[in-house]
Amino acid sequence: MSYTPPGQDPYAQQPDPYAQPQQPNPYGQPQPPAQQPYGEQPGLQQPYAQPWGTAPLKQNNGLALAAMIVGIIAIPAACCALLGVAVGAAGAIMGHISMKQIAQQGQSNRSQALTGIICGYVGVGLGILNGIAGLALNLNGGFGSF
């Protein structure tokens, strides 16, 4: 037991020997923002805005999209010879018309029109081959003649 001098409360709260001493805030009080010497210029609230804006987007040709869709459908439609030829021809024709419109109007989806033309011609070719194969098998008696 430790000795307490007379006149002091032996049960009083003692200071914590492990506590950190209180130090004042090294940064001090927060300062108000500094005033711009010439004030703020109107219209420049976004500091990282693009200075010249963005380029205008080119318009898409809807017929080119339709040509691409019809041309792609023409390839599996070639299982029925007449259907493949008709759908493929429609896709190729729409693709050629849309290519002309794109060149005249400066539109941006030339690749869709080209896809419609190519797939349309492939559908026509497969439809013709399917028709020829069907006629050849039918004239020879089909598979039963082998």
Question: What does this molecule look like?
Answer:
This protein has 146 residues and is an all-alpha fold. It has 3 helices and no strands. Helix 2 packs antiparallel against helix 3. The protein is elongated and about 130 Å long. The chain has a domain at 62-128. It is 49% helix and 0% strand.
Determine the strand fraction and express it as a percent band: under 5%
Distance between the termini: 118 Å
Oligomeric nature of the chains: single chain
Shape: elongated
Low-confidence stretches: none
Main β-sheet: number of strands, strand sense, barrel status? none
The overall pLDDT, averaged over residues, is 80
Radius of gyration: 42 Å
Give a summary of the structure in a few sentences.
This protein has 146 residues and is mainly α. The protein has helices at 62-77, 81-105, 110-139. The protein has three helices and no strands.
Attribute tags:
146 residues; mainly alpha; 49% helix; elongated
What's the topology here?
Elements: H1 62-77, H2 81-105, H3 110-139
Helix pairs in contact: 1-2, 1-3, 2-3
